[in-house]
Amino acid sequence: MSHHLIRKTVLAGAVAAAGLVAAPALAPAHAQVPLDPATPNFLMWSPELQSRGYRAIEDVFQVNTIERGEAVRPLVMADRQIDPTFTHDGQDWTVASYMEAFNVSGVLVLKDGQILLERYGMGRQPADRWTSFSVAKSVTSTLVGAAIQDGKIAGLNAPVTDYIPELAGSAYDGVTVRQLLMMSSGVTWNEDYTDPKSDVANAGVAPGEPGMNAMVSYMRRLPRANPPGAVFNYNTGETDLVGLLVSNATGQSLAAYASEKIWKPYGMERDAIWMVDPTGQERGGCCISMTLRDYGRVGQFVLEGGMAGDRAVLPAGWVEAATTRQIDNGAAGYGYFWWMNPSGAYQASGIFGQSITTYRDDGLVIVINSAWPRATGADLSAARSAFLDAVHAAAKE
To answer: Is residue 182 part of a domain?
Structure first.
């Protein structure tokens, strides 16, 4: 595993949602416009900065490398290509107009592992990586499955404190691995990105205890709000805990383990990079950068049940459980760091318009990378849903 640091920054808060503070200028190789010192927050980058920075996170933040292997799994063009059109919000749309209006840098559609549609925007090229934001959570949960398959984690009902002993005596006593993956630990957590006093804003900047991971130090002081497993509460801090749990259980960094279990055996085309905290621990909840086609390969790997060639990387039944409703989240449901889509798909989702949407029964994987003008928004999500519906319909014709 290689370790790469071009320019050090201070990470504040859980990276998937908020609080990346003071990003310095990108390296000259990517220079199109300089980063504006008056716009220090990662969530406040201008479209120009998003376009450049999302492709070059390693030039701004500390990262570890997920190394690819020697062989690349081919993704061939299907005999039939699609170019769907649709109507949304009283307007007719094409793939091109949707991509331009919503700052989409890449769309990839795989049907039975073959490419039905591949399109790039915002100056992005096929070899360019793009940051995942919270799509990384779904990769992290997949690595939990791999660690269970390897016998490194005893199982979903194993206590979290077996792997992060510093949490013993805290509100995490009695919480299982499964309950963390369901966002249902019952521990108090405020994920309000607009509240400067929220946990998500403060967790990354609060002083930690000497010799302890700062996130663990923060979260072991939180009180309990609900019984474990009872209530869904979206918690990016706990996804970082899951990442640390996997590292502790396997004795490897998340990047090295992802390389061993997915990138090398499945045949990713390019090294990926994973953002780390100031201690060098990968953020389980955020920010893997990979190529558009490698996003597609991640989706295809999960769709195929976690098989790499003839080897099962994940336990039997893992994918079905992880990607089906395990808990009520007030919407279509939530699995193990996977969202359920009202249309029947399961989805890895990240802010600013990142998603891997999979229609299991149709063998269909749809990847979208974007630089939305806002982290989230009902209007943005509704337009993406309309686009996904149009792609889904065209792929089934």
So the answer is: no
